[in-house]
């Protein structure tokens, strides 16, 4: 027996009426949530859809999404390892070596002065005062620099900053001290 769309609509209306008569929080009403709308669409558009099909489709899509996410995660981890290996290889091939700017005090010379028993560190105030007295700069315009960039150079003569070295102002004697400072936008390195 083949039913007509009109017969299906009448049957659906009766079922809906029975379920609604059970009350707002009925078990059957809860189980039928969304089903009436699907049934109406099935009748209207000649579909054969159900909540069960929608649930199974959603589960399949979720499983595919989980598998895709796992694959993407695994691929990402593999690419990170490859990048790390390539970066290590590039570092070796570029042959980075320590580099000190010409005309500046070498770290060896600074460490030698700092390592003397009678060398003492100057505080910022005393270092500014000393620079002002030696060179006539206005004290308020002097900025004491206490660390300097440490450079490396590669086989293509490219420089990079590899870190910082502490360079506190030092005083050993009037003719053997170290202060690095800025004054009015120009950087100086005082070694006497």
Can you offer a commentary on this structure?
The chain is α+β, with helices and mostly antiparallel strands and 192 residues long. Helices cover 51% and strands 21% of the residues. The protein has six helices and eight strands, in the order H-H-H-H-E-H-E-H-E-E-E-E-E-E. It has helices at residues 5-21, 27-31, 35-45, 51-94, 107-114, 124-135; strands at residues 97-99, 120-121, 142-144, 147-153, 159-166, 170-173, 176-183, 186-191. The strands form two sheets. Strands 2, 3, 6, 7 and 8 form a five-stranded antiparallel sheet that branches. Strand 6 (170-173) and strand 7 (176-183) form a beta hairpin. Helix 1 runs antiparallel to helix 3 (35-45). The longest helix has 44 residues, at 51-94. The termini are far apart.
Q: Summed up, what is this model?
A:
A hairpin with a 2-residue loop joins strand 7 and strand 8. It is built from six helices and eight strands. The protein is α+β, with helices and mostly antiparallel strands and 192 residues long.
